[in-house]
Design brief:
Strand content of chain A: under 5%
Helix content of chain A: 55-70%
Helix content of chain B: over 70%
Number of strands of chain B: 2
Strand content of chain B: under 5%
Shape of chain A: globular
Number of strands of chain A: 2
Order of helices and strands of chain A: HHHHHHHHEEHHHHHH
Structural class of chain A: mainly alpha
Largest sheet of chain A: 2 strands, antiparallel
Strand order of the largest sheet of chain A: 1-2
Largest sheet of chain B: 2 strands, antiparallel
Distance between the termini of chain A: 32 Å
Strand order of the largest sheet of chain B: 1-2
Largest interface: A-B, 40 and 51 residues
Radius of gyration of chain A: 24 Å
Radius of gyration of chain B: 26 Å
Number of helices of chain A: 14
Distance between the termini of chain B: 7 Å
Oligomer: heterodimer
Number of helices of chain B: 14
């Protein structure tokens, strides 16, 4: 396929079936541009490995083992029994990075789903209806945007702490704080996305096909979700991908400060809480979970960057 | 221009109003202010009631907000609980600069509590910002002049790493290398916690020495991104016609780069510096926690965890105000520096 595409104008006339080949779909085009981005491809590989690590690892270790405390072996250096060493109350750090990884990745993904839903709804309503609703929603968006996210997250985490009971799902108990963190990250990170969606809607709704849709009596919700939204999917996908990295970082920040996911449920973030007290004596406490966070966020950012180049070449800023 | 500034200030008022309402509602429903204030000793119901009256917590939340905003010295409040509002209130309200008194540090005005810590945060943030701007100018200009060189590629990669790295990780890493391992190897090592060595006292050299690692961590996160940004604007400027003219008339290369190009390329940096304030503030929270630095970030965390609503509210409003003000200053400075920009 790619061979036939690279024909120069002066090459021999195309065979008939090539001429009649259907135009390339958006997906094919995107993939072609994306795979030129070597760092992004590398990012995907690393992300797949991280997912295998976090979710495949649970085949070898049980969560009970990851949360099993044995103070007799506290703060042990990495060894054959405990590949990443043990923490302050003798839990195996290797097993905890596996189960913590699951929670961190789940938080990153679900928070972004929530963020995207809120961002699309607010941005679409503001952009499509305009007028007073637009200025009202945009004032609100601006308000959320103005407060540095970490302050908002910390206040909300404190507000909700202890109010949500633990949840049992598929024989595993999740600390209620996991849900809290997902919700508050989702509810504080949407303003940027809402602005993008609004801008897209403002420009797309001026097209003739929207006028035609209106003239034929298509309902507003059908126009918004059936006609405009599919046309503005590129910047949303890019922003959501970068949002995953941001959500994982946010979780790490609030858990690191002790207001995030509460033990015994592990996340990469809360494994680091208090690790600075053992900076000299037990570096393995923070080196492993910290590196995993950096690796995940870095790869996600590379993928997001590659997607931006592939889907939306004009929006490149830096 | 005056009209533009006026309009922006008028727009900022509803913005700060929304922010204050949201935080007020969140903080009023968080923790038990009476337990924070009274500690364990206060168990009698009558004491609780009296204290709630004094703090105005028995009022509906709407009235509490009004008192917080404009004070209650114009109204009569009922302090002794006999149902008759006889004494006039003492609070002046936020609009007149009275943020109330701290619950944890009993009776100390919030403004005083924050004011004591603010300089400590500023001596971390201002040097970091200066360091970031200076270093990123050097690196950015260099990588623009030597595009795709080794250093340029290194900066590109590092900018991604810096952007992706949580500040606590770089802080821990730098502590581990420059404090722990340097000590182990017998090299001169840096202190890790606090603002000064209590045995030596709060001297200039002590504070400077303790500042090194926090400032390094704060700068590292933003440095690579800034350099990348300066590189971008610099490359754009270097391809302009007036640079070609300058070259054609035989100006020395140094003059072209430093005078003609850099002056124009540094304009967008104003925007970045102004808008980067939230990032720096967020970084300060984590950095101050790790390095046990007695600044605003730690004040915020300590008082948030103990449910000291007045202080937390004061910090939040101050931060929001700073962000809004910086956005305005950024826009105005930009228009002032670049005559092509005209605001309506």
């Amino acid at each position: 396929m790619s061979q036939s595409l690279s024909l120069s104008p002066r090459a021999a006339p195309l065979p008939l079936d090539e001429l009649e080949a259907p135009p390339l779909s958006l997906r094919t085009l995107t993939w072609r541009r994306f795979r030129r981005h070597k760092m992004a491809l590398g990012g995907i590989v690393v992300l797949v490995l991280l997912f295998v690590y976090a979710f495949g690892g649970s085949l070898f270790y049980s969560e009970a083992y990851a949360n099993f405390t044995e103070t007799g072996v506290r703060l042990q250096a990495p060894s054959a029994v405990h590949p990443f060493g043990t923490d302050t109350i003798g839990r195996d750090i290797f097993a905890r990075t596996i189960f913590g990884g699951q929670i961190s990745l789940i938080i990153g993904l679900t928070a972004v789903v929530l963020e995207t839903i809120v961002g699309i709804l607010i941005g679409a309503a503001a952009g499509y209806y305009g007028g007073r609703l637009d200025s009202l929603l945009m004032r609100f968006t601006e308000a959320v945007f103005t407060i540095p996210q970490i302050f908002l997250l910390l206040v909300m985490a404190k507000y909700f702490s202890g109010r949500v009971p633990n949840i049992t799902l598929y024989n595993r108990t999740y600390s209620g704080s996991v849900v809290v963190i997902i919700v508050i990250i989702g509810l504080t990170s949407w303003p940027y996305l809402a602005r993008i969606v609004r801008a897209e809607f403002l420009s797309i709704k001026e097209n003739e096909f929207i006028l035609a849709a209106r003239a034929t009596g298509t309902s507003p919700s059908q126009i918004i979700f059936g006609h405009i939204l599919p046309n503005s999917v590129a910047p949303i996908v890019v922003s959501a991908t970068l949002g995953v990295a941001n959500a994982i970082l946010s979780e790490a920040y609030i858990s690191f400060l002790g207001l995030g996911v509460q033990p015994p449920t592990a996340t990469w973030g809360n494994m680091l809480e208090g690790a600075y007290n053992y900076i000299a004596t037990a570096p393995w406490l923070w080196v492993f979970p910290g590196s995993l966070i950096v690796l995940t966020v870095l790869s996600t950012n590379f993928v997001g960057d590659g997607l931006r180049d592939a889907l939306d070449p004009r929006s490149r800023t830096i | 221009m005056i009209r533009y500034i006026t309009r922006r200030i008028l727009q900022a008022i509803p913005l700060l109003f929304i922010i204050s309402v949201v935080f007020f509602v969140l903080l009023r429903n968080m923790g038990d202010p009476l337990a924070t204030m009274g500690g364990r000793s206060m168990t009698r119901a009558s004491d609780r009631e009296r204290l709630a009256r004094q703090l105005g917590l028995d009022k509906p939340i709407l009235l509490q907000y009004v008192y917080w905003l404009i004070g209650n010295d114009w109204a009569k409040v009922d302090l002794d609980g006999d149902g008759v509002a006889e004494s006039s209130g003492t609070r002046q309200g936020v609009l007149r600069g009275d943020f109330g008194t701290s619950l944890v540090n009993r009776g100390v005005p919030v403004v005083q509590v924050i004011w004591d810590r603010l300089p400590n945060t500023l001596i971390l943030m201002v040097p970091s910002e200066i360091l970031i701007i200076l270093l990123s100018l050097i690196v950015g200009v260099y990588s623009a002049l030597r595009q795709y060189s080794l250093l340029d590629n290194a900066v590109t990669t590092l900018s991604f790493v810096g952007y992706s790295m949580p500040i606590f990780f770089i802080a821990l890493l730098s502590m581990y290398i420059f404090a722990v391992n340097f000590k182990r190897w017998g090299l001169p090592y840096l202190p890790t916690v606090g603002m000064f060595d209590p045995q030596v006292g709060k001297t200039f050299s002590q504070v400077a020495l303790h500042m090194v690692l926090p400032v390094f961590s704060l700068s590292f996160i933003s440095l690579a991104g800034y350099s990348r940004y300066i590189r971008g604007t610099m490359l754009e400027v270097l391809s302009q016609d007036y640079i070609r003219t300058a070259k054609a008339k035989g100006l020395p290369r140094r003059d072209i780069v430093l005078v003609h190009a850099l002056k124009n390329a540094s304009l967008p940096i104003v925007t970045v510096v102004g808008l980067d304030l939230p990032t720096l503030l967020a970084g300060a929270i984590v950095t101050e926690r790790i390095f046990a630095w007695p600044g605003m970030g730690r004040l915020f965390l300590d008082h948030l965890s103990r449910g000291d609503a007045p202080v937390v509210m004061g910090i939040l409003m101050m931060v929001s105000f700073a962000v809004v003000a910086f956005q305005l200053i950024t826009d105005v400075t930009y228009a002032w520096l670049d005559p092509r920009i005209r605001y309506e």
